[in-house]
Amino acid sequence: MWTIAGSLEPVPVLSRLDLVPEPVAAALKTLDGADRVAVAEIDPTLADTAEFCAHYGSPLEASANCVVVAGKRGDVVRYAACMVLATMRADVNGVIRKRLDARKASFAPMDEAVALTGMEYGGITPIGAPADWPILVSPEVAAAPELIVGSGIRGSKILIPGDVLMKLTGAEVLPDLAR
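Above: the chain sequence. Below: its structure as tokens.
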């Protein structure tokens, strides 16, 4: 079923919730379309996208990265989980900053992103992100028939269709999110 799996051995995610952290498992249990989502165990030292794709033979253009962006206006900080293809870059200081109604936006510091999501750095996923965060998705990610995304830990990856990703609470397509 998964043409992008390379040498991965994906299994239905709901049968292996032990391969994801608690916030991700909780979100998957209520996600419409979770029966179309898979998870695969990986070597955690190979979680970074380029190394992962090279080792497991998964196409780089089928990988989507989740970046946590913090936007500030005065004393107010707003966060967003932003999904872009691994071959593209998120427009943090343009499109994302405006969407967050912030004067200044930047990638959230690693320790902050980890503490706020309950996930491991290098494995952060929009699945199970804090409920009050928007999940900003590039049109390319939303339209993808198959994607490989983080699972919340470095020891596994999630395989998910873009249309199922768009069923996450707070998910919205943001044109020109990535370049």
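Residues 22-30 form the longest helix (9 residues).
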